[in-house]
Amino acid sequence: MSDTVDKLVIFLAKRDGIDKLVKTFQYVSKLVNWHVEATNPDIAHRAKQWEVASGLSRKAFRTGRFLTGFNALRRNPGSKPTLRFLAVLANAGEMVYFFFDHILWLSRIGTLDAKLARRMSFVSAFGESFGYIFFIISDFIALKDGIVAQRQLVSMEGSKSNKEASAESIRKIKVDRVMRLMAVAANVADLIIGLADIEPNPFCNHAVTLGISGLVSAWAGWYRNWPS
């Protein structure tokens, strides 16, 4: 129990940890609002207020986040030219997303002209979706490379020492695979949310679709950021 509490403290000390927790609040409240809207308008209104407050607080908490794209490229540009190119596109899209999301937040709280909100929402969502497409492609390439590497390690096993080294390498590949699958799940879910802003449609904009997508993204991110 104490170990879980310690990990929770570490998790919530991270900016991403807090973001995933508040994102959970945001999309749980969206689903609650949808579920009780017809039967209990008062609770639905409170849930809507919780959703809006959570969304705005997440935007405030992400101030300056667009700069992390530069750091990601500097620290981990990728080993292959293809992955480096995809990383540039993915992080460029994410930087556009976070930068214009700051302006969207300022327009929604009344600091800037409220008329900017719709335009900034579109640009931010477009950058977000653009970036997520290339993050997803990169992860699928890395997953494929991991499967190939695992098969090679299995085929090269011979002596006991080789088996132990291969077992450790295979374990790392499997851990990386799980993390990348979580990243794909989160990015696909966020892509659906982004498409709801870019091109509103009955499927993407439905409260259940948005609610489930938001929770998938939040909980996949929760898993990836949880201390090992």
TrEMBL record:
Claim: Cell division is one of the keywords in the record: no
A GO molecular function held by the record: identical protein binding
Superkingdom of the source species: Eukaryota
GO CC list: peroxisomal membrane
Pfam families in UniProt: PEX11
GO BP: peroxisome fission; regulation of peroxisome size
Stretches that traverse the bilayer: 83-100, 120-143
Membrane topology, as annotated: Multi-pass membrane protein
Keyword match Membrane: yes
Compartment(s) of residence: Peroxisome membrane
Keyword annotations: Membrane, Peroxisome, Peroxisome biogenesis, Transmembrane, Transmembrane helix
Function summary: Involved in peroxisomal proliferation. Promotes peroxisomal duplication, aggregation or elongation without fission.
Protein family: Belongs to the peroxin-11 family.
PANTHER family cross-referenced by the UniProt entry: PEROXISOMAL BIOGENESIS FACTOR 11, PEROXISOMAL MEMBRANE PROTEIN 11B
Subunit structure: Homooligomer. Interacts with ARC5 and FIS1B on peroxisomes.
Protein name, per record: Peroxisomal membrane protein 11B
Native organism: Rhamnella rubrinervis
